[in-house]
TrEMBL record:
Any Pfam family hit: A24_N_bact
One GO biological process term: signal peptide processing
GO molecular function per UniProt: aspartic-type endopeptidase activity
Lineage summary: Bacteria, Candidatus Sungiibacteriota
Protein name: Prepilin peptidase A24 N-terminal domain-containing protein
Length: 109
């Protein structure tokens, strides 16, 4: 059970990592201040092509990518494979760590 829950948590963390990676890449490197950090962590997610704000069901890690066929629902442009790869990798890493180190601890609760 800890493995599954950790995998789901890893999907969420991976989705957040994608947002941070994308937004850090868009920051002006010459202008680095406290406001820049706020801009990375705030605001809604949007399509990098058409800039349409994504709805809640378009933000479900990994699942929404496959349901939408790897394309934006609005502009139909391809979504980078970076997104599902990072989400899956993070989920797998979290699940592996939980399986190796925490699965035996759950019955102790």
């Amino acid at each position: 059970m800890a493995t599954v829950l950790s995998g789901v948590f890893g999907l969420i963390v991976g989705s957040f990592l994608n947002v941070v990676i994308y937004r850090l890449g868009k920051l002006d490197t010459e202008r680095s201040d406290e406001r820049s950090v706020f801009l990375v962590l705030s605001g809604r997610s949007y399509c990098p092509h058409c800039h349409k704000t994504l709805r809640w069901f378009e933000l479900v890690p990994l699942v929404s990518f496959f349901i939408q066929g790897g394309r934006c629902r609005s502009c139909k442009k391809r979504i980078s494979l970076q997104y599902p790869l990072i989400e899956f990798s993070t989920a797998a890493l979290f699940a592996l760590i939980a399986h190796e180190y925490f699965e035996g601890l759950l019955p102790l609760w």
